[in-house]
Design a protein that fits this description.
The structure holds 2 protein chains of 2 kinds. By secondary structure, chain A is an alpha/beta fold. Chain A has 7 helices and 11 strands. The chains are: A alpha/beta, B alpha+beta. Bound molecules: flavin-adenine dinucleotide (FAD) and iron/sulfur cluster.
């Protein structure tokens, strides 16, 4: 069995995001970039499934410009067997991303596609669902536990009211949540080996997919600053002020 | 415990200008001499540049030697210095522009560039990797490894996944031994391994103690009409008194950004002084404020510098290894520039290694060739010329000492036939708190001045929470029993990240609290603690600030 894992390059979660002065997006020049933390969890889960003898191969795939290969190297250093880079300098929106992943899945024929539940840059939380829809595969999102049992996967998912366990037939798309696992530290020798592993580069033309943005971003802005609060002496004062502001 | 190990010809600790220049030069020489060389660099920051903080006005001398074609290669060195202004601030609202002819020569900046050294380091790392160097960011060199004969055989990388109580967490990964014929230590100012090496091999015999400064820096995006790309502004005087050395800088970089900061000599005597608050209020002077008003602060950080100069440079070689850059202390204190000397001494170490290697086996040998090369280089000439600059300020205060520095540098070109010494280490200079007046600092206004916590937030500092504290107290009782009554525990004020607090517990009993996860790795506590009771050690790899273009 083969597992395909999606890996996205995003601004590191420690970095304090700065919006560009012209509101056209978030500044990424000289900013630390990393693998989307949810994708790291997805890679880890794929490796654990393989190490448990339930899969033979883990293939990492990313979409984006050349620099994204850094994140594929991280996946390889963690233990992925192969890496595929779909090269494009255009921004990929979820639907395009899903179309590209479908094309890669058609080629690779994995039994499971493991994705992060969302990327922390745009928080869309759409790609996994769209991919399942396009592929007519079952989906299990927000996984906090994955158990592979022959041709099915038992997936426990975190929902508002607690935990829900689904059984899906494979092939399936699974998106992972924060509590699924704790990704491993990478070892130095594995980083060295990962640098030497080849990365397969595919173009959109080869995959027969067009980048057609379906959503236009109008403006990016920082959240409004919270005004400093004031301390009131008594309940009466509070009530008066609330009335003055027309809030009660 | 049996540990895994990897062998290299040369292991370099620290991916700053010194370490990376050493790596690049080694590969260039290896190619020239047709040698196979395995070189690795380890860096405690999560990526190269994450822990690099500098001004920076770069003197391109060493870069010209290392990569004569750095322009064509696209180095991020673009903004030439176009104007050079020095102000003597006489009070919160006043300052006078110092005429050009009155400025000591080393402070002139024609031909230099305003850069982000973090970005220059990233570029150097790309060059090094392109030539086959293995660079491992996110890994610390936590310990020095010795052979039975006492020579250095390499370093141990820090364990990953250790809990606060020392137990192994899920996914625990023991550190690895990185073994090398020669290990180059390029940790920058107050390297924690460098400090041990100087003790172990008596490298500081017959030299003055090292002297330090703390630099606190911010990056602002300012209103385009106020921005003058290439303008360099320095200030002396206010808010410091005549007995405290230090000064401010403000450099106009690209993209409407300015880098600004304040450096305070750590031999200050008033235990109530807070370098952070001095830096904050310095911005209120109109000479600085007029640039910042209407702008936005985007980054914050701090780092110590060593400024002892020639008199404080230790021996550089010992069996199995070499010290380079600010780990040894090559910053030119008169210019407050250490990037070019860091790069150059890294390159000299590479030359010493390659030349010795061609002559025989270098494993665990002491390559004193580096000490010779340093003495014959322009780094030595430069430090020799400015050797009396720092001690003059220290001896006579900043006004008279400053006047001497001008005479010494502009009239005598550093050739006066004597050398002054400053033999009091910085941790011994504090006066008792009862004898010193506490400065009154203005409350942060949230526009130009800020508090420590919102500042540290902009350094993007992060440490894995559940890990042993990386700030070790030799004697945990000293902060409360000794430092508090004597000096009102100065760690509360000198730490620019608010790591140290004296708090009262439920019973009203005073307690010393260490918020290690806020640490920006500036090393000031290791330097200034009057009892020399705090030892900075490496936290889990990748922890610490995540500087962008500092
Ligand atoms: C506020 C300020 C302003 C300055 N302005 C200027 C200026 O305008 N011009 C100028 O030329 N110089 C300036 N300097 C000085 C200059 O920044 C230093 O001289 C220079 O950074 C020294 O380079 P280095 O490579 O020796 O050390 P660093 O730049 O300190 O690099 C050391 C690297 O080693 C890593 N490291 C340390 N210990 C370990 C370990 N145990 N394991 C793994 N990695 C480790 C660190 O994370 C860091 O990345 C300034 C310094 C400051 C603080
Ligand atoms: S704890 Fe020490 S090294 Fe860390 S920021 Fe504070 S003074 Fe600097």
């Amino acid at each position: 069995m083969k597992i395909l894992v999606g890996v996205k390059r995003v601004v590191d979660y420690n970095v304090r995001i700065q919006v560009k002065a012209d509101g056209s997006g978030v500044a990424t020049d000289g900013v630390k970039m990393s693998m989307n933390p949810f994708d790291e969890i997805a890679v880890e889960e794929a490796l654990r499934i393989k190490e448990a003898g339930k899969a033979e191969e883990v293939v990492a795939v990313t979409i984006g410009p050349k620099v994204c290969q850094e994140q594929l190297r991280t996946a390889l250093a963690m233990g992925a067997d192969r890496a595929i880079h779909v090269e494009t300098d255009d921004q990929t929106q979820p639907l395009t991303g899903a179309r590209i992943l479908k094309a890669v899945a058609d080629k690779e024929e994995p039994k499971i596609v493991l994705l992060g539940k969302q990327a922390i840059d745009d928080d869309n939380n759409q790609t996994a669902q769209m991919l399942a829809g396009l592929s007519h595969w079952p989906q299990a999102t927000f996984a906090s536990e994955v158990v592979i049992d022959g041709d099915t996967a038992q997936v426990t998912r975190e929902i508002d009211s607690g935990l829900e366990t689904l059984s899906v037939d494979l092939p399936a798309v699974i998106s992972v949540d924060l509590r699924l696992n704790e990704p491993r530290y990478v070892k130095l020798p594995n980083i060295m080996k990962a640098k030497r592993k080849p990365i397969e580069v595919l173009t959109l033309a080869e995959l027969n997919v067009e980048v057609a943005p379906s959503v236009t971003v109008l403006k990016t802005s920082t959240p409004a600053k919270r005004e400093a609060g004031i301390k009131v002496e008594s309940v009466d004062e509070l009530v008066t002020i609330l009335k003055e502001k027309g809030l009660i | 415990m049996e540990r895994e190990s990897m062998e290299f010809d040369v292991v370099i600790v620290g991916a700053g200008p010194a370490g990376l220049s050493a790596a690049c030069k080694l590969m260039q020489l290896a190619e020239e001499k047709d040698q196979e060389l395995m070189v690795c660099v380890i860096e405690k920051g999560s990526e190269v540049g994450a822990h690099i903080l500098s001004g920076a006005v770069l003197e391109p001398t060493a870069m010209n030697e290392l990569f004569p074609d750095w322009k064509e290669k696209g180095a991020p060195i673009k903004t030439q210095v176009k104007g050079d202004e020095v102000y003597y601030l006489t009070g919160e609202n006043k300052g006078i522009k110092t005429p050009n002819f009155l400025i000591p020569k080393p402070m002139h900046n024609e031909g230099n560039y305003i850069v982000s050294m973090a970005n220059v380091s990233r570029w150097l790392a790309e060059q090094a990797e392109g030539m086959g160097v293995e660079i491992f960011p996110g890994f610390t060199a936590s310990e020095i490894l010795f052979n039975d004969d006492g020579s250095v055989k390499g370093v141990l990388t820090g364990d990953m996944g250790v809990a606060e109580d020392g137990s192994e967490k899920d996914g625990y990964m023991p550190g690895m031994e990185l073994l090398a014929k020669q290990t180059i230590f390029a940790e920058g100012c107050r390297g924690h391994l460098g400090k041990q090496l100087m003790e172990t091999f008596n490298l500081r015999d017959n030299v003055d103690p090292q002297h330090y400064g703390l630099g606190i820096k911010e990056v602002w995006t300012i209103e385009p009409e106020k921005h003058q790309e290439g303008l360099v502004v320095h200030t002396a005087g206010w808010p410091l008194d005549d007995h405290t050395e230090g000064g401010g800088f403000l450099y106009h970089m690209e993209n409407n950004q300015v880098a600004l900061g304040f450096i305070i000599a750590l031999n200050y005597t008033n235990p109530h002084l807070s370098p952070f608050d001095e830096m904050q209020r310095w911005k209120l002077n109109p000479k600085i404020a007029h640039f910042l008003e209407g702008g936005e602060r985007v980054a914050y950080g701090a780092r110590a510098v060593n400024k002892g100069g020639m008199q404080s440079v230790p021996k550089l070689s010992f069996p199995g290894g070499l010290l380079v850059g600010c780990d040894a202390g090559f910053l030119n204190g008169a210019k407050i520039k250490g990037n070019h000397t860091a790069m150059k001494t890294g390159m000299l170490a590479a030359e010493a290694i390659m030349e010795s290697m061609l002559a025989g086996d270098i494993s665990s040998k002491e390559l004193s060739l580096l000490d010779e090369k340093y003495k014959a280089s322009w780094v030595f000439d430069e430090l020799h010329k400015t050797r009396n600059f720092g001690p003059a300020l220290h001896k006579f205060g900043t006004v008279i000492g400053g006047a001497f520095a001008w005479l010494d540098q502009n009239i005598f070109a550093g050739k006066l036939p004597f050398t002054w010494h400053n033999t009091t280490p910085d941790h011994e200079t504090l006066k008792p708190a009862a004898l010193a007046k506490a400065p009154v600092y203005p409350k942060p206004d949230g526009k130009l001045t800020f508090d420590k916590l919102s500042s540290v937030f902009l350094s993007s500092t992060n440490h894995e929470e559940d890990q042993p504290c990386h700030l070790k107290l030799n004697d945990p009782s000293i902060p409360i029993s000794q430092n508090l009554p004597l000096y009102d525990e100065p760690a509360q004020r000198y730490c620019p990240a608010g790591v140290y607090e004296v708090v009262a517990d439920e019973n009203g009993e005073k307690k010393f609290q260490i918020n290690g996860q806020n640490c920006v790795h500036c090393k000031t506590c290791d330097i200034k603690d009057p009892a020399q009771n705090i030892t900075w050690v490496t936290p889990e790899g990748g922890g610490g600030p995540n500087y962008g273009n500092m």
